[in-house]
Design the sequence.
């Protein structure tokens, strides 16, 4: 008896996301006729086919959640913080039960999870009357909360939030001893190494390991960049209309920043991870803006500088996106491909 229809497509998808069955098993259960459906056939681990946003409904709901969370955070602060933040965290958990467990809506649940981390950390920090640097106990409880969140919902981005919680805990121990730049740089490199480990275990990007690696790469890049900036780039503040502090960086610093972004882009190409590049775009845009600005700054030419920055940055992204596979082939031709290198630098698969 053919039982491939015993489970609905939604139930089969939930089983895949929970790691109960593999993608191949899911395809067999759906039957070959269902493979014409792009959504059903998408690989859960391929970063080009990630089912992160299923429809515009997810985007619409996420906008609402973002606004709601900001308002809730401010309201809890007005109520004195502490217990109010923890009650806010409890309400966020209820929302996660609906969007994460029942609807399996990744984007809304991601925002809820990130807000849950912030509410728990601030709640326990206020309850313990902690001031200044983060104390160990609030950081430890936050880590436990994110582990519980991952155990309950088993969504890939939770791994990155657990990593952030670990960094917060580590910072609570050594934050006053180790310079922040060194801490961020080492933390980013550590996350990058773990992400490479996940990638090496799944070179075809078909399993949950690849999704975990995606989010760790996405988190590692800004930590690495910001750590290097704090260590080697000396920024200075320039007064803008005597009202707003505008951070400016000299041409040399901007070139250094662009060079670092360039290195990360080459690494992203080699390991086939666009996430590493995307999360560093803000730094690239800032560096291009400062180079175009030159030594003088005035409100009169800010528009033209901004448009030229977007032109350069957007054109580079489009060019790289269109030529991603061809550029990777050229790069892989000069990189080692045997042994572990073959897993770290996967071959081009269009």
Sequence:
């Amino acid at each position: 008896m053919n039982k491939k229809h015993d489970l609905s497509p939604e139930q089969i998808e939930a089983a895949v996301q929970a790691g109960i069955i593999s993608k191949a098993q899911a395809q067999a259960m759906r039957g070959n006729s269902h493979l014409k459906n792009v959504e059903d056939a998408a690989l859960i681990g391929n970063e080009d086919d990630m089912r992160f946003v299923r429809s515009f409904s997810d985007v619409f709901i996420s906008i609402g959640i973002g606004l709601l969370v900001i308002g809730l955070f401010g309201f809890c602060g007005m109520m004195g913080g502490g217990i109010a933040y923890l009650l806010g965290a409890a309400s966020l958990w209820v929302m996660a039960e609906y969007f994460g467990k029942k609807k399996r809506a990744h984007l809304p649940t991601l925002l809820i999870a990130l807000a849950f981390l912030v509410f728990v950390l601030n709640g326990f920090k206020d309850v313990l009357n902690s001031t200044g640097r983060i104390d160990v106990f609030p950081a430890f409880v936050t880590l436990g909360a994110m582990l519980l969140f991952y155990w309950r919902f088993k969504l890939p981005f939770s791994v990155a939030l657990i990593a952030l919680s670990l960094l917060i805990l580590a910072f609570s121990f050594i934050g006053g001893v180790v310079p922040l730049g060194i801490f961020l740089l080492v933390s980013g490199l550590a996350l990058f190494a773990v992400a490479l480990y996940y990638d090496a275990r799944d070179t075809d990007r078909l399993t949950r390991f690849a999704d975990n690696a995606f989010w760790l790469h996405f988190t590692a890049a800004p930590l690495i960049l910001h750590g290097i900036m704090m260590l080697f780039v000396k920024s200075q503040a320039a007064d803008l209309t005597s009202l707003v502090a505008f951070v400016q960086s000299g041409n040399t610093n901007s070139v250094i920043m662009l060079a670092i972004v360039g290195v990360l882009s080459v690494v992203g190409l080699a390991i086939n991870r666009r996430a590493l590049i995307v999360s560093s775009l803000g730094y690239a845009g800032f560096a291009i803006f400062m180079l175009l600005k030159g030594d003088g700054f005035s409100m009169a030419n800010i528009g033209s500088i901004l448009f030229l920055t977007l032109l350069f940055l957007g054109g580079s992204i489009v060019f790289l996106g269109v030529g991603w596979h061809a550029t990777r082939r050229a790069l892989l031709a000069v990189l080692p491909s045997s042994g572990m290198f073959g897993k770290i630098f996967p071959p081009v698969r269009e």
